[in-house]
Design brief:
Strand content of chain A: under 5%
Order of helices and strands of chain B: EEHEEHHHHHHH
Number of helices of chain A: 8
Number of strands of chain B: 4
Largest sheet of chain A: none
Helix content of chain A: over 70%
Number of domains of chain A: 2
Strand order of the largest sheet of chain B: 1-2
Largest sheet of chain B: 2 strands, antiparallel
Structural class of chain A: mainly alpha
Radius of gyration of chain B: 20 Å
Structural class of chain B: mainly alpha
Oligomer: heterodimer
Distance between the termini of chain B: 20 Å
Radius of gyration of chain A: 22 Å
Chain lengths: 199, 222
């Protein structure tokens, strides 16, 4: 086991040297952003080499920090290069005008039946489809409210688990419904990512 | 119940806050650092942005820039977040939490610098962002190596004589914190020192200074 860890460490260190060498040689700023993202993954590999449950728990915050830094510097890059523009409607397809209501309804209904994380994903795809087709003005407030309620439900469920453990089933139901709302709301934001006045 | 093994560097602990196996604490040393960070966070909350005076060359003429607090809302928010992250890093009793707070300081520093719509300043923010992002590799790498070799991340265990932390992990930790706290050097390079918004830019310097002081304490104690 020790030997495998040392070997993995050696491989990651070699990759780090290669990655940093590439970063030093690269002049194009966009490519440098991409290379730093690759270097970030090596940090995750270092954590993953620990290979315990704790490592699994540490990878998630590492990943979140990495992604948020990546988003921050790519936003700085976009503003610096003046690449921010307002897109107009790109897709003009007949089905997208007629189908979205029914399809979104079916997907959201099925998602609610599934419930939990996967149900939230299915319902979210339905809402994405609806927003992509129908436009999304004025609906952000609704999403934010929904997300806020889901968060509050989650906290309530957490307190039930902590303070009244005998009602755990109630807590599971609340948390399941909340994560359905949360994932659906988050995914539906993807459908609105086309620029616009209030994005 | 909790006894710091090494009290020569930081003095005896004053306060212990226990969250399961993550135990945050104040010693004399970290309490001073915490108070310092708190002071500057409060300054960032209550102070209004500075008002600059420009002098015209070759004459007695000068004009004052018109700056409203609304212009600096985002920067003030980022300065506050930076102060909070610094406070967390000061009292953290867990190596991984410390590294997370460090990288949060890095992100908020990017935010403080990038609030100006000036090409030079944005360029400096971009370069710093790349450095801060690369620095997460040794930063999290050190935490991972510490966890793999010693089996714990709690400073209460690591500071004890029973556990030897490998030298490479210590070097990585210092390197990572250096990368995250690098912002003042980029700020000095940028035109940001001539741009308005003084009290918020201070937070960059305060946070990086305090991070360095804390990581020195951690590395020596381990």
């Amino acid at each position: 086991m020790e030997g495998i860890y040392a070997f993995g460490l050696l491989a990651v260190f070699a990759s780090i040297v290669i990655g940093f060498w590439a970063l030093v040689r690269e002049n194009d700023d966009l490519h440098r952003i991409l290379l730093t993202d690759l270097a970030e993954i090596l940090a995750l590999a270092l954590i993953a080499l620990v290979a315990t449950d704790l490592a699994e728990a540490l990878i998630l915050p590492g990943l979140v920090v990495g992604i948020s830094e990546l988003m921050a510097i790519s936003e700085v890059f976009l503003v610096r290069e003046g690449l921010v523009r307002q897109p107009d409607r790109m897709l003009q397809i007949e089905v997208m005008d007629s189908a979205p209501g029914l399809l979104a309804l079916a997907l959201v209904g099925y998602g609610i039946l599934l419930s939990g994380f996967s149900g939230g994903a299915v319902a979210g795809i339905g809402v994405i489809f609806y927003f992509v087709c129908k436009g999304h003005d004025e609906r952000f407030a609704l999403l934010e409210t929904l997300s806020g309620y889901a968060w509050a439900m989650w906290i309530v469920a957490f307190f039930i688990f902590m303070l009244l453990p005998q009602y755990w089933f109630f807590g599971v139901l609340i948390a399941g419904a909340a994560i359905l709302l949360k994932v659906a709301g988050k995914m539906s934001l993807v459908g609105t990512m086309r620029g616009g006045a209030n994005v | 119940m909790f006894e710091l093994p090494v009290t020569t560097i930081e003095g005896p602990e004053l306060f212990v806050l226990e969250f399961g196996d993550i135990v945050n604490y104040f010693t004399v040393y970290t309490a001073v650092l915490f108070t310092f960070a708190l002071l500057f966070t409060i300054l960032a909350i209550i102070s209004r942005p500075e008002r600059q005076v420009d002098f015209a060359f070759g004459g007695d003429a000068f004009y004052t820039k018109d700056i409203t607090p609304g212009q600096f809302r985002f920067q003030r928010f980022m300065a506050l977040a930076c102060g909070m992250a610094t406070l967390g890093a000061m009292m953290s009793g867990d190596v991984f939490n410390f590294t997370l707070f460090c990288s949060m300081v890095g992100i908020t520093n990017i935010g403080i610098v990038a609030a100006y719509r000036n090409r030079h300043v944005l360029n400096a923010a971009f370069q710093y962002g790349i450095v801060a992002m690369i620095a997460t590799v040794p930063l999290f790498g050190s935490a991972a190596i510490i966890l793999a070799t010693t089996g714990t991340l709690s400073m209460w265990e690591l500071f004890g004589p029973a556990i030897a932390v490998p030298l490479v992990a210590k070097i990585f930790l210092v390197l990572g914190v250096m990368g995250e706290g690098m912002a003042p050097f980029y700020v000095a390079k940028a035109e940001i020192t001539r741009a308005p918004g003084a009290p918020y830019v201070l937070m960059i310097h305060v946070s990086s200074l305090l991070l360095f002081l804390r990581v020195v304490e951690i590395v020596i104690s381990m």
